[in-house]
């Protein structure tokens, strides 16, 4: 049971309308306006789809992710590498924790500024997942 919408503020419907977040009891829901009818989609369903896609991409590029993380941290030693790899090995556990705690507001704002965006339909299916991409600054 997710008590928060991990990607609140980063989700829109297929028509470009922002998707609100609401709660029924302790459960977070994304609320999609379907021609005036507010469809409540369990946030955990959408969030798990997004996190699964992201984790698949990370694991497919595991070596690059480890290398990039080490460079970002400025620590390219054996112990730092082991810590990063251990974190990737525990991705399922980390996802479960993230579903319970959510992302800090600052992290969601940063993701939005970087171009991260999710488009869903009124069933909660992911139609598009826009991810930040590296831009060429050598012009």
Overview of this protein structure:
The structure is a single chain. With 139 residues, the chain is α+β, with helices and mostly antiparallel strands. Helices cover 45% and strands 22% of the residues. It has one domain (11-130). The protein has five helices and six strands. The strands form two sheets. A three-stranded mixed β-sheet has the order 1-5-6, with helices on one face. Strands 2-3-4 form a three-stranded antiparallel β-sheet. Helix 2 packs across helix 3. The mean pLDDT is 90.
Task: Summarize the SSE layout with pairings.
Elements: E1 11-13, E2 20-24, E3 27-34, E4 37-42, H1 43-60, H2 62-73, H3 78-89, H4 91-101, H5 105-114, E5 117-120, E6 126-130
Helix pairs in contact: 2-3
Regions with little confidence, pLDDT below 50 for 5+ residues: none
Side by side, the strands of the main sheet go 1-5-6
Q: How many individual helices? A: 5
Structural class: alpha+beta
Which range does the strand content fall in?
A: 15-25%
Topology as a string of helices (H) and strands (E)? EEEEHHHHHEE
Distance N to C terminus: 48 Å
Any idea how many domains? 1
Look at the structure and give the mean pLDDT.
90
Computed Rg? 17 Å
Fraction of helical residues: 40-55%
Question: Quick one: overall form?
Answer: elongated
Largest sheet, in brief, is: 3 strands, mixed
Total DSSP E strands: 6
């Amino acid at each position: 049971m997710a008590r928060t919408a991990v990607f609140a503020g980063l989700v829109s419907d297929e028509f470009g309308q922002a998707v609100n977040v609401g709660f029924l009891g302790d459960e977070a829901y994304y609320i999609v306006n379907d021609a005036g009818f507010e469809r409540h989609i369990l946030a955990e369903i959408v969030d798990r789809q997004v996190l699964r896609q992201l984790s698949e991409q990370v694991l497919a590029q595991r070596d690059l992710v480890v290398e990039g993380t080490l460079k970002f941290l400025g620590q390219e030693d054996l112990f730092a590498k082991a810590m990063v790899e251990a974190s990737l090995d525990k991705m399922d556990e980390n996802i479960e924790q993230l579903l319970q705690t959510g992302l800090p507001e600052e992290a969601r704002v940063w993701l939005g500024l970087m171009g991260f965006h999710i488009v869903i339909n009124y069933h909660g299916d992911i139609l598009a997942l826009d991810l930040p991409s590296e831009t060429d600054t050598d012009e």
